[in-house]
Sequence to fold (285 residues):
Amino acid sequence: MTAHVELKKNFHMDQSATRLDIPQRHDAAGARQSPDEPAPVYVTGGHPDSRVVVVCEHAANRTSGRFGDLGIDAALMTSHIAWDPGALGVAKALADAFGAPLVHGGLSRLLYDCNRPPEARDAIPARSEVHDIPGNRDLSEAGRARRIAEIYEPFHAGLNDMLQSRPALPVLITVHSFTPVYRGVTRAVELGILHGEDPTLARAMLATTPKDNRYETRINAPYGPADGVAYTLDRHGSANGLLNVMLEIRNDLIATPEAEQAMADLLAPWLERAIAAAGEKGTGR
Ligand SMILES: [Zn+2]
Fold:
């Protein structure tokens, strides 16, 4: 399955997402998605010589009637269980700083968590933190297959196509946010630097932590690869020989556009130094 990705090869980051042309699916209505329907993945180009690609799987909290009703309060759709608040703003600012391509999701992770393989129990969670998700708990096999085919597969095809079209692009950075309080427990960590199979870039980041970093920074926190969160890193980063790291930012620190930009202003030069310190590993794929 190959999704067609139209890359913008201009020299300036284009903040308007390029909509993927999603292959026709055999859905019940037999109709093409309307232009108002969120796409499963959005890809923007960036500078042709960029050494970095930025990915944000949990960028959006939108749903679509075509996938059924999740059966939860509308208010919950604005909470962290539906998406990573602030993460897309940081991802865009980072992509801008690097002139990097950006690949991000367009649908809530409650429909499908694109940082999980289909066999993962929490790819389509029946329960998230303390909330039941009736529309997932009662999902039919056909409904599950449809979400895999129409969200998971196009997302990863879009990212894969981007990487294959840019063979000299050696660094993959994924951007996420996490809730300050989880199951009633306050999290002290503010910035998590996570790795999967290849710890090179994460360790280089720790070794190049800027003196003015005032955030409580930890490796593989508030969760790590044992919790199944390194799927995108391993599938698209380590497997392709790319340096890769996952950034987890506590979402109260990126609650405004100004705060998102300030976080990116801290992270971009830090990543630049870490990438340099990690050497040229990844360019020979
Ligand atoms: Zn996330």
Notes: Residues 18-59+79-105+149-277 form a domain with the Aminopeptidase fold (CATH 3.40.630.40). Residues 58, 84, 176 surround zinc ion (CB under 6 Å). The longest strand covers residues 171-178.
